[in-house]
Amino acid sequence: MPRIALATYDPGAEPGKDTDLPELVRALGEAGAEAEARYWDDPDADWGRYDLVVIRSTWDYSWRAAEFRAWADRVDALTRLANPAPVVRWNTDKRYLGELAAAGVPTVPTRYLAPGEPGGLPDGHEYVIKPTSGAGARFAARYTPAEHEQAVRQLGRMHAEGLTAMVQPYMRGIDAGGERALQFFGGRLLHASRKGAVLTPGTAYDAEKVAHPDLERWEPTDAELAVADKALGAVPGGSGLLYARVDLVDGEDGQPRLMELELVEPNLFLWLHPGSLERVVEAISEAAR
After folding, report:
1. What is the C-alpha to C-alpha distance for residues 251 and 255, in angstroms, rounded to an integer?
2. For the chain, how long is the longest CA-to-CA vector?
3. What average pLDDT does the segment 183-189 reach?
4. How far apart are CA 286 and CA 244, in angstroms?
5. DSSP string, 165-190
6. What is the residue-wise DSSP string for 184-227?
7. Mean pLDDT, the chain, whole residue set
8. 10 Å Cβ neighbour count for 158?
9. Which of 258, 272, 264 lies closest to 100 in space, CA to CA?
10. 100-114: pLDDT as tens digits
């Protein structure tokens, strides 16, 4: 009987936001595993007793990125961690987009502004500012050139907290085609989804956002699958991936561009794709063996 821990976050007094987690624990148990959900920062957790620790929904890690990376290193030294700690360390800093672009992956153009570094903001087009370590559109906002002062204030707040900012053109293709999420599990395409624009005009960077508005099922195109395959093929140590989510948007030419490669704790959207549960359980069980 394989022993499996699904690492999640502590929601405190609020209900947990990972609605797939109880169903996944139940299904793994029915498949013959000893499975349980554990808070990643639980000081009493004995991670070495598990055959496999799967990072499932550690959705508070971006506030404590250094602590989380150290945790991943410790767990990876005790047992098998999925995804592996080197991949986690690489993927928790979104400067990986620059590496993928250099490897020939079509990506959303990105500049990085670290604390203390000079750098101007665009004055000829709409743009987005967000942190290199973030989740759920935390500290992300969309600006026009006329909103320069608001954007500068956001940069100041981020830099004061030690965060490096990403500056990207706003991809207008999102307004028409949405953002597509291609989910892979066990080395194969699991399913795909599409959502609407998260960053609506006038929404403050520190306001809470709906992370997955108007989510629906999606059938990926050949062009989207090709970009996903190229991105996953360029991941350092990518042969050890158990899961991955490839987030795509359309560029000005109508072709898909990589917006984000989520290799740490992607929402699986199993409630939208209930037929995928069995395949996820099979892949996790096989990895645990």
Report:
1. 6
2. 61
3. 96
4. 17
5. EEEEE--THHHHH-EEEEEEETTEEE
6. EETTEEEEEEEE--S--TT--TTS---SSTT-EE----HHHHHH
7. 94
8. 21
9. 258
10. 999 999 999 999 999
Averaged pLDDT for residues 111-118: 89
| Burial (Cβ within 10 Å: 0-12, 13-18, ≥19) of residue 239 | exposed
Token pair listed for 268:
């699986």
Whose tokens are 């007793």? That residue is: 49
pTM given for the model? 0.94
Q: Which amino acid is at 9?
A: Y
The stretch 138-158 carries a mean pLDDT of: 92
Query: Residue 22 to residues 18, 36, 46: CA-CA distances in angstroms?
Result: 8, 9, 21
Give yes or no for a contact between 204 and 141, defined as CB atoms under 8 angstroms apart.
yes
The alpha carbon of residue 264 and the mean position of all alpha carbons in its chain are separated, in whole angstroms, by 6
Q: Give percent of the chain above pLDDT 90.
A: 83
Residue 140's contacts (CB-CB under 8 Å, 6 or more residues apart) are 128, 129, 130, 131, 134, 198, 199, 205, 209
Closest of 146, 244, 229 to residue 191, by C-alpha: 244
3-state secondary structure string across 9-58: CCCCCCCCCCCCHHHHHHHHHHCCCEEEEEECCCCCCCHHHCCEEEEEEC
Structure tokens at 24: 């996944």
Exposure string of 13-24, with b = 16+ CB inside 10 Å and e = fewer, is eeeeebebbeeb
Tokens of 271: 């409630």
Predicted confidence (pLDDT) per residue in 231-244, tens digit: 999 999 888 899 99
